[in-house]
């Protein structure tokens, strides 16, 4: 593991993810990876319960190595964002987990989205000591600052990059020892595009599950109809035989 990107969500993490991919760095991006690999969601939930609720043994290096690989010498990236601006953006994004479409799809998709949503709600409720949706803006900002201070306190200065979005490739490439790409630094997933992407994804998923459910209902109705027809046909044959 070359890099640990430990920034809070809604600070530019997707843009940084794309930038690291351009630099040829293999990625393990929380949401995307765990949704595709539900077994990882189970492991993250075990780690979270051990940390916050003392349920089960705390994860040791060997456990983290199974998930992330050896990261002892990894460099750490923190994206800086104004805490007040971040709090509003984060709350808006986190609220998607409570959107009726997410709740509906999570009930249907018990293999992937349901455990992922459960893990995210559990971690957030414990990290913020209550649901972020019910916390004041000031308490979210304070937790943001506290977390960043903690990461700084445990990371050697020469292994930490505090990046400002808009700084381009130079500070990142210099920190990682990578040549500067010719293409522009990626910019993705701002609040508007994030909302539009969520709405598109949610609507497609609801449509998909609606079609599947309607198809299942149609199949069940057809089976019942033909079963009734076969029984009626069999009874008619029996009556005919008795009559003869």
Automatic annotation (TrEMBL):
What is the annotated signal peptide range for this record? Answer: none
Q: Which SUPFAM superfamilies match?
A: P-loop containing nucleoside triphosphate hydrolases
Per the record, the domain of life is: Eukaryota
Output this protein's name.
NAD dependent epimerase/dehydratase
